Amino acid sequence: MAVREIWLVRHGESEANVAAARAEADGADVIDAGHRDADVPLSPLGEEQSRALGRELARRRVDAVPVELWESPYLRAQQTIRIALDRAGSEEPPRRIDERLRDRELGVLDLLTRQGVRNRYPDEERRRQWLGKYYHRPAGGESWVDVMLRLRSVLADVDRLHGPERLVVAAHDAVVMLTVAVCLDLDERALMEFAETHTVANASLTRLRRDGIGEPWSLEEFSAVEHLDDRQVTEHSGRKDDARVR
Asked: From the CB of residue 101, how many other CB atoms can be counted at a distance below 10 Å?
């Protein structure tokens, strides 16, 4: 049996999300995340969100069909899905840690607020304004196109899976948004129009479905957060993948 569904989970709120929001509010240039990107843990609210996600996965019977789990190597994504599956009481599925599911890399702009980018790398800011979100690659970092390239290879591997009907992916906002773009074959204009009005919330669930290998994917649900109460809903799109950043 081929994979017919992909369930994309964005990690819960992280300590870096909180630090970034605080730095933006304070008008600071630099975000004090306290960890390298791969080691950033969930915030206390992120852990709450993950438990709420777990209750939703149980309600939806995530393991009603054969399931496989692919995870980003970054701590916040792994914490989220482990807390969620533990709360769901689901049978532990086969797991795979895949470096291609890591968050988008920002190179020299890492740990800078929007103001910090303007103040410290004005030439880079002008390049971003000129090239646009889709193609702009910060020095040492990745554009959205670069992330899409690695996700295309991930999806090629999905077609080689035999057994699981449902693939759960625990990753990041960029990975969720750009997996949707690749599966729906969105070009630059279509993706940017979609991203202008859609953001990927923390601990949200996005679902894609197809009838079989070679059949088109359809978007069944995007960034669903009905399992979170109003206090728990956080988007934290911020600098990294806010389509409104030009």
From this structure: 23
CA–CA dist 152, 27 (Å, integer): 37
Tell me the C-alpha distance between 174 and 87, whole Å: 26
Q: Can you tell me the distance from the alpha carbon of 208 to that of 206, in angstroms, rounded to the nearest whole number?
A: 7
Sequence-distant (6+) residues with CB within 8 A of 61 are: none
Q: Does the pLDDT of residue 239 top 50, yes or no?
A: no
Pick the closest to residue 157 from 103, 104, 210, 98 (CA basis). 98
Cβ-proximal residues to 239 (8 Å cutoff; 6+ apart), any chain: 20, 106, 109, 112, 113, 114, 117, 245
| pLDDT score, position 240 | 46
In angstroms, the CA 213 to CA 2 distance is 7
Task: Tell me the C-alpha to C-alpha distance, in Å, between residue 102 and each of 10, 18, 60, 154, 189.
Answer: 11, 19, 26, 12, 25
pLDDT tens string 25-78: 999 999 999 999 999 999 999 999 999 999 999 999 999 999 999 999 999 999
Give the model confidence (pLDDT) of 77-121 as tens digits. Answer: 999 999 999 999 988 899 999 999 999 999 999 999 999 999 999
Structure token digits, residue 22: 């605080």
